[in-house]
Amino acid sequence: MVETGYECYPVQYLKMVGPRRFALLKKLGIKTVKDLLYHFPREYRERTVKPSSACAHGEQATLQGRVLGVSELNPRPGLWVTRVQIQEPGGYFIAVWFNQRYIKKMLASGSRIQVTGKIERRFGEVQLLVTDYELLDGETRAPQSGLIPVYPLTEQLSQRLMRSLVSLALDEWLPHIHDFLPPEIRQKFSLPDLASALRQIHFPAVEKEAIRARKRFIFEELFLLQLLLALRRRQNTRRMKPHRYHDRRNLVESFLSSLPFTLTDAQQQAWEEIKADMDAPWPMNRLLQGDVGAGKTVVSTLALLRAVGSGLQGALMVPTEILAEQHYLTLSRDLAPLGIEVGLLSGSMKKKEREKILSGLASGEIPLVVGTQALIQEKVQFKALALVVIDEQHRFGVRQRAKLQYKGHCPDVLVMTATPIPRTLALTLYGDLEVSTISQLPPGRQPVQTYVLPSSYLPRVYGLVQREVEKGGQAYVVCPLVEESEKIDVRAAVELVEELSRGPLAGCRIGLLHGRLKPGEKEEVMEAFRTGQIQVLVTTTVVEVGVDVPTATVMVILDADRFGLAQLHQLRGRVGRGKARSYCILISDSNTEEARFRLQAMTSTTDGFALAEKDLQLRGPGEFAGTRQSGLPEFKVADLIRDWRALQLAREEAVALIKKDPELKAPEHRLLAREMRIRFGEKAGYLDIG
Ligand code: ADP
Ligand code: MG
């Protein structure tokens, strides 16, 4: 029993658990004694046992005593009253049940009982209308007074049974449970040891004990996860990559001097970090984050050029075809003077074009390729893939990231996201990545002026668009999301273009962009907008990410309340990319509180990180920016918003511990290694620990 441990001991081996109860427990996810003990109360009820003489009329109270006798009354049809006379030191009181005639059979005279309910003083007699009772003889061992745990349960399992089970399990198993948290860490944060914490979270003597115990379990949960992530990061450094960089052609320098600007300090710093990773013998795994327009693309281009200059290959993977085409166009244009050929690979290419690119990648003739998910298909072979840059990482799942990684021989991976992620989420979601942050926008940017206006203001808004266009600026008008259906969205967009060119924006050159256009057509529209042939671009949300036309100065979003915060921020990020003052007009007639909160958040700040925090508050970690499918772990006790401080501490401790004992091989970490394997199972299986 001691050998196998409570995590393997099936709960049905406990006394009191037969097949029926086991089935019910399984519904709660409880299969082993450990599961049972880690099934924490959701709250506690205060129960202080008093003598009945100390109770006032109307009070909720808990009384104890010995059963003297039971009588039944049937004052009117359908009502049965069971009156139990109970003796206590110095007197007696009456416990009353309504319509629960089975009680009579359960209460032999002389048995000890505890009852909880409302006190009624009548005719010199104390009555208690029972809501909860407990027999004090027999198999019950759970404490009957003080703070009583209340568990999350399914039907048919009673609180009473659960308490007894937990109590039994605690008595049998606590002596055999050894703490896996290293004592120094426990002391540092004054956390109770595992056995005490388990007892105290179920049956605290005082509230403080329950709080302290819970604190331990929160820390434990966060710490073990951070340990897993730290081990993964560390594991990564143990694979050797076959390639080394020597930018013999000095491409990076040439490119930098061709730019019309110099890097900001924040960009420079990020570039240094990336360079250092590229120089390491193991593959880079880095997240480059920065607000919309912070200039991540330039930095990633430097990294790609360094690969190309070293005679290796680089790939840039983006979530949409429009983005792929945009990056392809700008890269081809910017890199042509350096004599670098860029390839484009997307799902909708003609077969012949595609074959050409594929063979160019396989032969190494094409050193640099931009593409959508098409890049991670089986058929794509590279000659010497050294670096993969993934833009707008939040759109890709962790699995896709892994898939691309195995294309080459341990390529360096740089992921970028323009959806700023609250630090706490980044630490868990991207916890296996190193992080560089570009926290500063290029100089000269003015914050985008943001307004929330009802649709009755639209004529004036289009007036603004007209004026901006006359000054040489350009505008986006984002159509409302009508339905999930793209077809309906497209029709609405087409109608909007007609309406605008007939009336409010007559005389402007209006273009239309939506997801149903053929790739060639999209490209044409974007190019026309970029060069100013199109002055107003009516669009569905396909422009959301990454599109870069610095001369655009107005973003009008219709029915803005239908969009999430992250999306609104992304859309707004399409303007304010040049030196001119820019505007973002959010049109909304919605009065719901949530919509107002979101739109107000947009006007209160242009800082993507601040907005991300608000979004997290609003939606919770699960829904945040589509993180659900990207593998955010489910927490049992921890809450990423409430416990962000604990998360940071847990991470620091995990990092420090792995630094000291990278494989958890030290004898004092043996239990920790074991716990990791048990908790993370397969995931920890390929970690070389313990
Ligand atoms: P994002 O971080 O959103 O990907 P981009 O890389 O697209 O941002 O950059 C936004 C715009 O800022 C681009 O037009 C780019 O040329 C410009 N830019 C980037 N870095 C600088 C800089 N250091 N100084 C001035 N402009 C810059
Ligand atoms: Mg970008």
From TrEMBL:
* Catalytic class of the enzyme: isomerase
Q: What chemistry does it catalyse, as a reaction equation?
A: ATP + H2O = ADP + phosphate + H(+); Couples ATP hydrolysis with the unwinding of duplex DNA by translocating in the 3'-5' direction
Pfam families registered for this protein in UniProt = DEAD (PF00270), Helicase_C (PF00271), RecG_dom3_C (PF19833), RecG_wedge (PF17191)
Every copy of the Helicase C-terminal domain together lies at 457-617
Q: Name one GO biological process term.
A: DNA repair
Q: Which InterPro entries match?
A: ATP-dep_DNA_helicase_RecG, DEAD/DEAH_box_helicase_dom, Helicase_ATP-bd, Helicase_C-like, NA-bd_OB-fold, P-loop_NTPase, RecG/Mfd, RecG_dom3_C
Domain named Helicase ATP-binding is located at 277-438
Name the EC number(s): 5.6.2.4
Q: Which domain of life is it from?
A: Bacteria
Instruction: Output the SMART domains linked to this UniProt entry.
Output: DEXDc, HELICc
Q: Which GO terms describe its molecular function?
A: 3'-5' DNA helicase activity; ATP binding; ATP hydrolysis activity; DNA binding
* Record key words, sorted: ATP-binding, DNA damage, DNA recombination, DNA repair, DNA-binding, Helicase, Hydrolase, Isomerase, Nucleotide-binding
UniProt family annotation: Belongs to the helicase family. RecG subfamily.
* Cited function: Plays a critical role in recombination and DNA repair. Helps process Holliday junction intermediates to mature products by catalyzing branch migration. Has replication fork regression activity, unwinds stalled or blocked replication forks to make a HJ that can be resolved. Has a DNA unwinding activity characteristic of a DNA helicase with 3'-5' polarity.
| Protein name in the entry | ATP-dependent DNA helicase RecG
